[in-house]
Amino acid sequence: MWDLQGDLQTEGYRNGSRIRVLLTSNEAIAEAVRIARPEVIAAYPITPQSPIVERLANMIARGELNASFVRVESEHSAMAVIHGAATAGARVFTATSSHGLAYMYEMCWWIAGSRLPAVMAVVTRSIGAPWNIHGDHTDIVLLRDAGWIIGMAENAQEAFDMTLQAFYVSEEVNIPFAVGIDAFTMSHTAEVVELWNPRLPERKQAYRVLPMDKFAVNAVTMGKARMKARYDLALDLENSANVIERTDKDFGNHGGLVEKYRLEDADYAVVMMGGWCGDAKDAIDALREEGYKIGLLRLRFLRPFPKKAVKELGGDVLVVDRSNSDLRGVLGIEVSACGIEARNLVAGIGGVDVGVEEFYKIFKKFVDNKIDLGWYL
Amino acid sequence: MILPGNTSCQGCPISLAMRCLDEIENPVLVIPAGCSTVVAGLHPNSAMKIPVIHVPFASTNAVACGVKKAYDQLGIKANVIAWMGDGAADIGFATLSASAVRKDDLITIVVDNEAYMNTGTQASLSTFWKAKTTTSPKGKGDERRNLALIMIAHKADYVATATVGYIEDLRRKFRKAGEMSGFRFIHLHSPCPPGWRFPSEKTIEIARKAVASGAWALFEYHQGRLRFSPVGRRYVEKENRIPLADYLKSQGRFEHLSVEEIEELEKVIEEEWKILRKLSTD
Lengths: 377, 282
Fold this sequence. Notes:
The structure holds two protein chains of two kinds.
Chain A: E1 19-24, H1 25-36, E2 40-43, H2 50-61, E3 68-71, H3 75-87, E4 92-96, H4 98-103, H5 105-113, E5 119-124, E6 149-152, H6 156-173, E7 177-182, E8 190-195, E9 216-217, H7 225-247, E10 258-261, E11 268-272, H8 277-289, E12 294-299, E13 301-303, H9 307-311, E14 316-321, H10 330-336, E15 342-346, H11 356-367, E16 374-375
Parallel strand pairs in A: 2-3, 2-4, 4-5, 5-7, 6-7, 11-12, 11-14, 14-15, 15-16
Antiparallel strand pairs in A: 1-8, 6-13, 10-12
Chain B: H1 13-19, E1 27-31, H2 35-39, E2 52-54, H3 60-74, E3 79-85, H4 86-91, H5 93-101, E4 106-112, H6 147-153, E5 158-163, H7 167-179, E6 183-189, H8 193-196, H9 203-212, E7 219-222, E8 225-228, H10 244-248, H11 259-279
Parallel strand pairs in B: 1-2, 1-3, 3-4, 4-6, 5-6
Antiparallel strand pairs in B: 5-7, 7-8
């Protein structure tokens, strides 16, 4: 844990070559952050996020990353420190999970409202009560209305690529970017990842505050100023889809806002996001072999929401959620807001495992029109 | 540093203190919610001649820390100032403590008007014992918190108490803090006419009575030494002080106090002085 030896495993790519190594998604994100060279990192420990910032702290201790690492007393302060550092013009990073995201929620609104570029990893984990450290998406959906770009990776490779894209897109559109990965099934599970350096441009942002400026930022507003700022943010968040799509090929070619898996001729479409989509794909493959025309629309982004891809869905649609609002799942609500009549299943809350076999059974019921709506308990 | 015609109330101690910021070179102000937010100017105007970053209530020292760390990384010289009221020091106390422990290179100034004045005079942890506020209508039951002593316990690089009653002393402390580096903390006594209920032309008079009655101690702590400030040094000895009632009875918030209660308060104040005298190296 306190091994300050250089990490030989990942040394190769730093001179420009590509190497394939075994990394967890947490480690892959830390490697991407190393490449992005943030100047200020602030973090507070929480399971299952901690290995990301521990790895970054080690890089800094070894002299491999020239960043200030601020050890704060809470997640609220973690976000506040990177808010301040971004205001002053630094490239910034933090990471959190679950209660940590809830605790920093106020600052998440401020950094978005201030139009400051920033990148945060969210290792998605259930929010209490009762206590639960395992995976679901109830935390990351909290960010939905705050004005963030919210991505959700499926595997360690995508976690690495999306983190790098996050720095680029965030600084291009002046909107903070959250990179989501699932607790444990991704954060603590090693996969082969190809590491490479896409050579990000230098930090850029719409404004920064310097000494001698006669400039006040975020003073009390009256009249329409606040509403106009909120509208501009919503509009730019919507338009960030273009930047995400345009630069997808530069950051791993994962499909842009969505990944369409065996959807071309599908009569049945499943909509999901996150790590468990890998298992869902295996189940779809099995059903395809049996002749069922079923495919998966994997949402890579919750914001901007991939409205176009959802509206294009034909046939029967099933949304499988890992978070809920009332009895409905959050993605279910989002998909129905696009005018799609979809069935909705809430599953996998608090780390309840839904693997290939379960997905096979769920999807089989869906195509046979026998699925129970509601919760997979 | 602050333009005339700003939005402060008549007799406001905050706009008075803001004028003194010209003692500090390259200042960048970080201000959370509070009276200072309003005094500094409403969008799209700014009453300040220096940069101001407005921030959420509990975040001040953390944002200021981030600003300074970024300037250090980017090679920019600045005196980052976390400028807050006593309310922000309440809600941001853990953040303030962490900032002090990290020895963040910034100046923290707590403009203490002894209640949540911007929201209409609700009691804070700094509110004077037995003072009436809208949330302590019979007088506050708990003693005030002594932030400066707490910062000394953090081994801050510089701790000072000051008052708008003695501007030269206040300016000297701002200047001293600005010329140093490390974690610098100034606790600034700021009598508030509407909140304490006294006429707006009496701000300086009340502030001076606080010092002369022993209700506000003026001292500096630096390099392990606590020294009483010259302007208030004679009030270290109780016999040199004016009666506490002279200070209290000039404010509406203490109108209800009986002679016995004032005697109790004198004892509480004397207990604080005992601690200070023990720490003093004078």
